[in-house]
Amino acid sequence: MKNFIEELKWRGMLAQVMPGAEELLQKEMVTAYLGTDPTADSLHIGHLCGIMMLRHLQRCGHKPIILVGGATGMIGDPSGKSQERNLLDSQTLYHNQECIKAQVAKFLDFESNDANAAEMVNNYDWMKDFTFLDFAREVGKHITVNYMMAKESVQQRLNGTARDGLSFTEFTYQLLQGYDFLHLYKTKNCKLQLGGNDQWGNMTTGTELIRRTLGNECEAYALTCPLITKADGKKFGKTESGNIWLDPKRTTPYKFYQFWLNVSDDDAERYIKIFTSLDKATIDELVAQHKADPGLRVLQKRLAQEVTVLVHSQADYEMAVEASGILFGKGTKESLTHLDDATFLSVFEGVPMFEIAKDKLGQPAVDLFTQDAAIFASKGEMRKLVQGGGVSLNKEKLQAFDQIVTADDLINDRYLLVQRGKKNYFLVKVV
C-alpha cells in the first residue's frame, strides 16, 4: 500500500496528525471520513483540499467516506466563523446533498466492488430520531463543559471576536460532530477523521468521545490539512465576485479555468501538488520547465487543465482554452459561435454593453454604432477608424463603414461583438 501520510507530506497537505495514525495506515486498510455541511447546492474550491485528501486516501488503498451534515448543517459550526449561520430546512438540505454527491463522484470511486469503494452518508439519518434527553444521557455525560470551553474555536467566540457571542446551539456542535465519529466508528469501523485545520478541536472531541465511551484501547485518530491561502496570505478561492464554485451554473468552466490560469508562480507551484493527482516526478519536471522560462506559464497552464478536466470535462476545458484566446487576438467569428451563452458572457464580462431592438438591424454599421449603440462618438470618427482597419465586427475587420448589419451577423442569435482598436470591446445585445 502507498503511504498516505508521505503522499500528503510531499504535497504540502498535512497540518496535524495524532500519534499512531501513520502506523495504523501502514498496518491495515483504514476507513476514514471527512464531513461537509450542505449549506449550498455546490461545493466551492475552498472544499477541494479536503476532497483531494479523500481522493489520495482511496488511491493509497484506504476507504473514504464523505459525510454530508444534514443534521449539523441545521445548526452551524462556530469554527472560524464570526457569527451564527442561517439555518436551512430539510428540503433544501436534501437538495444540496444530492448536488454535492454528484460533484464528489468525479473525485472518488463510489461504484467499484472493491473493499475501499467510497461511500456517502448523511448524519441526519442517525440524528433525526435522537431525542434531546437521550443525547444528554448517552453523549453529554462523557464530555465536560470545561473540555468543550477550552477549544480555541469556542474561546474566540466567547472572547469578543464575535459580535453576538456563542449560542447554545452552536456550542453543542462539537458534541454532534464528535457523535458522528462515534457512530461511524461503531457502524463502519471508521478509525480516522480528516478535515481542515480549523476543525482540529471538533475532531479531537470525537476521538475523546470514542475513548471515553468505548474504552482507551479504541484506535481513533484525527488528521488535518492546512488552510490553503494565497502567497500574499489572503484567503484562497475568493475573488472580487465571490467564491469559485464547482457548479458550472454558478461559475462557468471558463471563469473556473481562468482562476487557476491566473494564479501567481508561487501559488501555482503549491496548488499543482494539492489540487491535482499528478505524481511527484511529473510535478518536479513541470516546476523545472517553469523555472527555466516563467513567461511560458507552464505550471499555471497544466494546473488549470488538470483541475478543469477533473471538475468539469475535457470538452469544457477545450472550450475554456478557445474562449481564453478570443480576448488576446486569436479568436475568429467561428470560435465565437462555438461558445455557449454563459461562456460567451463570461469572456466579455465587464465589457460595455448596449441593447437595441431587432428591427434596428438591416441598416449601415455607421448608423447602428453611432446612433442606436453609441460605440463611436461620431460617424466621422468611425469612418476614419474603419478606413484605417481599426474596427472589427465579430472578430472580422469591417470592410466598409456603411456595411449593412443583418440578423445573419448575430452570435448566438442575439449578440454583436464590436472591437475598436486592439483592446476595446463592446457588446450589442439585440432584443
Q: Describe it for me?
A:
The strands form 3 sheets. A 6-stranded mixed β-sheet has the order 1-6-5-2-3-4, sandwiched between helices. Strands 9-13-12-10-11 form a 5-stranded mixed β-sheet. It has helices spanning 4-10, 21-27, 48-59, 90-104, 124-127, 132-138, 145-149, 152-158, 168-171, 173-188, 200-214, 253-261, 265-274, 280-292, 298-311, 314-326, 333-338, 341-347, 365-372, 379-387; strands at residues 16-17, 31-36, 63-68, 119-122, 190-196, 221-225, 238-239, 242-243, 353-356, 391-393, 396-397, 415-420, 424-430. By secondary structure, the chain is an alpha/beta fold. A hairpin with a 2-residue loop joins strand 10 (391-393) and strand 11 (396-397). Helix 12 (253-261) packs antiparallel against helix 15, helix 13 (265-274) runs parallel beside helix 15 and helix 15 (298-311) crosses helix 16.
The helix-and-strand class reads alpha/beta
Distance between the termini: 61 Å
Task: Catalogue the unreliable spans.
Answer: 80-85
The main sheet comes to: 6 strands, mixed
Question: How do the strands of the widest beta sheet line up side by side?
Answer: 1-6-5-2-3-4
**In which range does the helix fraction lie?**
40-55%
What is the total tally of β strands?
13
User: What Rg do the Cα atoms give?
Assistant: 27 Å
Q: Please state the overall shape, judged from the principal axes of the Cα atoms.
A: elongated
Write down the overall mean pLDDT.
89
Beta-strand residue fraction:
5-15%
Specify the number of helices: 20
